[in-house]
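Need tokens for this chain, all 459 residues.
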Amino acid sequence: MATITKRGNAYRITVSLGYSLDGRQLRRTMTWTPPEGMTAKQIQKEANRQAVLFEEKCRTGQVLDGSIRFADFAEQWFTNYAEKQLRPTTVAGYRRLMKRILPAIGHIRLDRLQPHHLMAFYDNLSESGIRENAVYKLRENWPELLKGRGVKQAELARLSGVDVNKLSKVAHGAGLYLCNAEKIAAALNLPLDTVFVSTTPDSKLSGNSVQHYHRPISSILSTAVKWQVIFSNPCERVDPPKIEKKEAHYLDEAQAARLLEALEQAPEQYRAMVALLLFTGLRRGELCGLEWDDIDWDEGLLSVRRSSLCLPKQGIFTDETKTATSQRVIKLTDDALTLLRQHRTAQAKQRLQVGDQWQDSNRLFTTWNGSPIHPDTFSKWFSGFVKAHDLPPVTAHSLRHTHATLLIAAGVNVKTVSAHLGHATIATTGNIYAHAIKSAEAAAAEALQSALTRSKKRA
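Here are the structure tokens for all 459 residues:
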């Protein structure tokens, strides 16, 4: 039952929600101020109505206050904000980060969360050995350990939950990530360092990675301020580790030419995908999301309208482009158009071979039966292709960087390159390709100096 207490010209409405586990009474309060011109009878009637509405909101969990734990508020933030406002891939990424965030600060009430809690968490993330993808290998006395425990590999696989084939590979020298290494050590009831040795002992998270954790925490707490659950965001009083600027990995002109030459022996579809990335600078998801209707064959134009993404529980799905500016139209080169025509012909032949099993997705790049290709399928193939042809260790995304740096080296202005890549701002392009831009400016200065010197000699 709500109680109403008059305080000056306003009314304080209090709702009791029972007791906490430690015996404290749980209350929620709000203040209602009647507008001018209302009679005493109208004020009393409206105050009662406000009390009923407020009590209903409290009972249904629509009213929050600072006593809520970070973990509980974070879950409401995901449901009521993130899943409605953010991209599915962003939400999935934040969900993964919560696996580390919640054990550190999830138990703390929002109104008691202080900057020192966050700084301690960030310091912990920066410690050596914190990386989940640190690689561990079995110690040389592994056979003796198993014999001493009276356990065979097949039984250990069952006890630990680690696949028996994976365990067999580890026994023959393969590496293992921390999560599985811990499962095996726990199944043997032995300390981790007794069973395994880390091949990356100094594996700590970079400042860039720590920033990834800072962003969802700050967003959650900013929303808490906006919803009037807390008065201020403690993240605003914390300086997370600085982001280390890293130069984008890319191929130079000669290496790109080697790649195109090596592609002549690649499967037709992958040859078209790699070449198109080099010619257009598309993101991987944008490439996989292309449909035949996106090509204007007469004008030689390619419209970028969507991305093809994949999440573990959702599978392959179509989403909007990364930003509004990512929706763009790109002029295709003659070589790119020729490759696409060849690919269209090859796909038509494949469709005839498959017959009624063909799924008409209208995508440029598909599986054997016409369904959208998994983005990781292309990335894994490209990684193996690069190794097989002794090319620099670049990824599929490096082809986007290669495209950009080649444009800059050719003298294309940064504004045009930014629009071509679909960046939200020119500043983004400038930050990513600072080195390439400086190199282009230096080359331009040298060319100008050479031209002026020749003019001076002629004079």
